[in-house]
Every structure is written in C-alpha cells, then in structure tokens.
Amino acid sequence: MSSQLLTYIFVGLSFATYIAIAIWSRASSTNEFYVAGKGVNPIANGMATAADWMSAASFISMAGLISFLGKDGAVYLMGWTGGYVLLALLLAPYLRKFGQYTVPDFIGTRYYSKTARLVAVLCLIFISFTYVAGQMRGVGIVFSRFLEVEIQVGVIIGMIVVFFYAVLGGMKGITYTQVAQYCVMIFAYLVPAIFISILITGNPIPQLGFGDTLVNSSTYLLDKLDQLSIDLGFSAYTENTKSNIDIFCITAALMFGTAGLPHVIVRFFTVPRVSDARKSAGYALVFIAFLYTTAPAVAAFSRVNFIESIQEKSYLDSPDWFKNWENIGLIAWQDKNDDGLINYSAGKPFEGSRPIFSDEFGSQGQREIKNLPTLDNSNEVYIDRDIMVLANPEIAKLPAWLWL
Question: Residue 313: phi, psi to the nearest 5?
C-alpha cells in the first residue's frame, strides 16, 4: 500500500470520526448550540479547551519558531502559557460568575458604557482575525503536503469540514469533536517525538532527551546544536540575542492577546458550575503541558536532523523529504556557486523573504526560482519554519505510519 493511499485513509477516517461525533452529539436546543447545555464534564471540557489552545500555532508553528530562534523562541512558550494561566485564573471564572459570555459584554455591562463595549469588540475582531489567519495557513500547509494540493485548496477543505460539524453540532458537537481532536493531536505529536528522542539520545522521554547526551557519545544534544549553529554562521542555539525589554514586551503581548480569545473563553460556560470551570481550567493546563513541554525537544531534534540531512549533500542525491516539500514551494534551493551541493548557512538565499517560482524546472531538476540570488552570503536554502514539525518524522526516516 502506497504512502499516499495511507494518507487518504488516515485523513478520511479522521474526518469521518469528527463528523460522526458531530452528528451523534448534535445540538437539539439553543442552549446546547451555544454553550453545550452547560452539561459537559470538567475533564472532557479540559480536553476540549486544550484542543482549542493547541491549534496550528501551537502544534506546528511554535516548535518551528523555537527550532530557528533557539532560546529566543522561549518567549512564545512563556507568552502562550502565561496567556492561558491569565485567562483561566483571572478572567474566565469571573466572567462566568458575572453572567456574561464575552469580554465586550462584560466591559459594557461593568462600566455602563456602549463606547467601551464597542472598543472591546473592535479589539476582539482584530485579535480573532489575526489568530484565524495563522490557523488557516497551518491547515493549508498540512493539506498541501499530505493531500498534494495547493495551500489555498487545503485551506478551503479545512474550512468546509469545520463549517460542517460546527453548524451541525453547535457547541455541544464541537466540544466532543475536540475531545477526539485532542487525542489525535497529542498522539501525532508525542509518538514521533518519543521515537526520535530514542534514536538521537536513547532516552524515551523527549523532555529529558532534550538535555541528554547523544547515542554512543558523551556530547550533549544542546552542545552539538550550539556548535552546528555557530559553524553555519548563526548565534549559539542556547544563547539569548534579544534584550530583556524585548522579551518582556513580546511575552506580555502574547499573554494579553491570547487571554482574550473568545473561542477559549466560551469553554468555561459549557460546564455546570463555576467550580467546574476552575477544575476544567486545571485539567486543560495539564493536557496542554504535554505538548508545550515537548515542543522545545521537537524543535531541537528537528534542527539537528535538518542540518545533518542536507548540509553539503548533492542536490541530485538529496533526500525524498526535501524534494517532497520543494514541490509545494515550502523549501527551495538556489545553487549560487554552481557546485551542485546544498549549502545551508545564515543569510537569505535570494532577494525577498520567499521564493517566487516559475513553472519551469532547472538543470538539476528543481523548481525554477525567479528571484535573483543574494550574493552577499553563501546560504542556498530557503525553508518555511512551519514545516519543521510535519517534516521531522520524515527527516528522521521514521516509518510512514508515524508521519502521515
């Protein structure tokens, strides 16, 4: 059975499961449609909240950012985690107790001001559109690679599926669908991380393997990553390059922005009591921690594997994963010195931040890039950070069922 057929089977079964759950738990009243009848168990609500929080930004982008930013990427861990704690402890339970469903409703009622409510609505729309744009791009990247379609088509497919079970099941259907989503996502994230941790460090716990020595070596993983980064012209992986005020401002912005996400706040209205809302917040934090504590390890593993699998290799002999992602434009190679070897280092490979492809293929068989090369550095490789988590099992040569 081909890997592409396996992909279609896995994706089809996942969608069928989500839609079946939405039909089984579809809303039969207005109360069930908007707040799931306020009858969701705190543990199930915690899993659904975690699935809400562990969206494409957390599942795909966070480890990708840390992989390229190193220690500086920790601001995203701190910001998003802090945002959830802020929401769960200081905001959501009190909104529930106050009797309002959204932050704008709370602000308008608390301060007796329609103007304040309007300002809160505009802020919420801005935050929501920014958030949704990132999620939809993540959906597009997943579908573009595994269903072999354009990113735009992948976005449309994802929107149709979500629209179907959201409209059919309402909040009740979404809640139980997200419980299933959490199980699928955490399995898909942890299992490859465990296998790769064993391959690289011999430690089956990624969170510990992240700080362990390499297999058959006394060198620590992070020490090797520091040296690789320095050799390629980057800052050491474990070195901070941002100032303290920069770290503080980014973390604060992420905390306050994510604390206002409406689709997470409404989760605390789907349980019977305010005390249950607090319990579900605690359960969600535990469920979220499985992914958030694993992300730095996944980032480090993927960075080491990525560098070692392509550096100074002939493009004609480049691994299959490289050409698979190149076909959809999320990796690109620009041979600046005409030696046929892939050279990855600090700097942009061409003018602009992204490759502009033509429909033609070059002499080496790669997609032709229309951008002019940037000749002030030796880097020949463009890579989209968002693919690091998805490509990691492929790069590590894990069995197909682990990365489909």
Answer: -95, 150
